[in-house]
Amino acid sequence: MNINKSQVSLLLFFFFLISPFLVIGQGYAKPNDFLTIAVTTSTANSGLLNYLLPRFEENFGIEIRVIIRGTGQALETGKKGDVDLVLVHAEELEKKYVADGYFTRRNNLMYNDFVLLGPANNPAKIKNSDSIVTAFEKVISSKSIFVSRGDNSGTHVKENLIWDLVEFNSPKQYSWYLSTGSGMGATINTTVAKNAYTLSDRASWVTFKNKYNTKIILEGDKALKNQYGILLVNPQKHPHTKKENGKLFIDWLLSSTGQSLIASYKVSGQQLFFPNADPKN
After folding, report:
1. Given this chain, do its domains 22-112+227-275 and 113-224 carry the same CATH topology?
2. Which residue of 36, 181, 229, 247 is most buried, as measured by CB atoms within 10 A?
3. Rounded Cα gap, residues 265 and 250, in angstroms
């Protein structure tokens, strides 16, 4: 079939006319569109993000680039405008950053809990029926080795709140208190090696392999709830951030689809995160 120049011009005209409406999946993403998000080690190492993100990317054509940080570092990364979103777990600290204007939106996303890990021989004689405050008091009185992340992560923030409840200031001055300045995996490794106690989020513990003779010593205290929030970086402070795509991703996570996916994620048959979105915030 012969096609003359006028027909070619007509075809090109129609192609450029409709090209803005060509979409990838359900979204209206541009080629090579992406978001950058800073996340906690627990959401990354648990495998949750590997479960969630491909589904969003397939539906909306927006690549999610992940930076793994402790909560404090993740919030600072967002404060500087180096990411578009943060997914963290230190609620009061998050709200302070919002109040200070570094983020325009914070939503509850999901929760699990913290657990106190320790050696099977349990030298501090902690009972699962103890409160977490009593457990920390027994660590002090027995001078049992306690390993802290010491990195201003969400877990470290929770640990410090418990020390405050115990009214025990500056535990790091004592020889039985060790600070790794590292992520949860490295901290649990040190705990196992030192036959020590530590506070961990449950997801990190469930997915940790080298448990040896370390086990959960205490769980179930209401004070050990571990709430996760997702925050949007303030575009007025950082106009280069991808506000609309960020909102799209947050809304998807808070939707029935995102929440159902979070609830369905399991490791060894165990649900690691429990959705509790508050989309109105």
Report:
1. yes
2. 229
3. 18
pLDDT digits (tens, 9 = 90+) for 140-184: 999 999 999 999 999 999 999 999 999 987 788 999 999 999 999
CA dihedral 115, 206, 58, 245 (to 10 degrees): 20
Domain parsing of the chain, residue ranges: 22-112+227-275, 113-224
**In this predicted structure, what is the pLDDT of residue 36?**
98
Helix (H) or strand (E) holding 156: helix 154-166
Report how far apart, in Å, the C-alpha atoms of 185 and of each of 58, 218, 227, 263 are.
30, 19, 20, 24
pLDDT, position 247: 96
The C-alpha atoms of residue 93 and residue 21 are separated, in whole angstroms, by 42
DSSP string computed for 66-98: EEE--HHHHHHHHHTTSSSEEEE--HHHHHHHH
The pLDDT value given to residue 263: 98
Q: Which pTM does this prediction carry?
A: 0.85
The ranges of the chain with pLDDT < 70 are: 1-32, 279-281
pLDDT of residue 2: 54
Alpha carbon distance 263, 258 (integer Å): 9
CATH architecture assignment, domain 113-224: 3-Layer(aba) Sandwich (3.40)
CATH architecture for segment(s) 22-112+227-275: 3-Layer(aba) Sandwich (3.40)
pLDDT score recorded for residue 196: 98
Q: Is 262 exposed, middle or buried (0-12, 13-18, 19+ CB in 10 A)?
A: buried
Give me 66's structure tokens. 């992940």
Do residues 81 and 38 touch, judged by C-beta distance below 8 A?
no
End-to-end CA distance of the chain: 60
Per-residue pLDDT at 169: 79
CA atoms of 25 and 56, how far apart (whole Å): 9
